[in-house]
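ok trying again, last paste got cut off:
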Amino acid sequence: MHDHHDQSPSFVYVPSETTKRPLIPHRLAADIRRRQVWEAMLNWDTLDNGLQTLRFIALWLHANFRVAKPTTYMSATLSPIVFLTTRTVRRPRRIALGKGTALASEAIANVRRFALLLLWAYTGSQHVMERLAYHAADEEHPGQVDRIMTLGDVVANVGEAFDVLAFLSGSGLFWSVLGGWTLRRRHGLERVGVFVSLASLVIHLYGLHRRRIEITEEMLESTRVVQNQLDTYDRMALRKEPASAQDVSMAEATVQDEYEQYITNKRRMRWLGMEQIRVVSDASFTLYEACAPDADTNMLEASAGLVTGVLGLLRQWHEARYGSLDI
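nice, full thing came through this time. structure:
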């Protein structure tokens, strides 16, 4: 699918001039940089991914406490953590810890959902105006990929709203676990939320696919511009035509700009792949949950959630250090 877009163009350009650095003591500059990075990390996305990671760590522990003791050497080898848990923690304690970690997981999930919906309600109008409305300043509409990603965000928030409504109505997973029900099963409003969330993930995957095509085309364009500059120099050399200092300077500036744009897009492409892994991981569990609502999906949900949360935190750290990826 779109094979001609999957080829990653490459060229190497080494700038002729070195960048001058301010005369700041190395230790002071490092301290300033660290402070700037941590300040950049103080945002909702970092909090969201952090809460998700904590939630799924608790769910992963719950899944391990609930699993029965391995009865064969093969099962013990394949599940060493479960084997150690069942060997070192007595069954009554495992049951209590399993219920406590399940409650902690659902409590963190609901704190995150309430925070998300409050934030969405507070910034909703401004967010919609910035991403969907007509921009009078530059007289341009947002790109089609941006619209797709915004639609995915809106659908995802609707899915989260169903989970919150289930919690408020007393039918959510939190109340089931609190009441002593050991099996985590989604019913009613939460079941509807699963399908809505699945739709949002499909939209996000499509948006990321379109973004990959967009970035690849930009990288190809950068390659073409640089190649055209090199071809122009070659033709002038063959004809022995002298180039003015102004022409040389403009050509070098063009190549420098395209090189920097290429490197930026290469970084975006790498993290776009990470983002696709995050969404596919989340979608794999959500699809399984939609198709098999009565199956025990605790370990799958915890594993997929940890992948999503940890990769999200790594992306936030990278953007705090090197700038927004705009993917």
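cool. The chain has a mean pLDDT of 81. Residues 39-322 form one domain.
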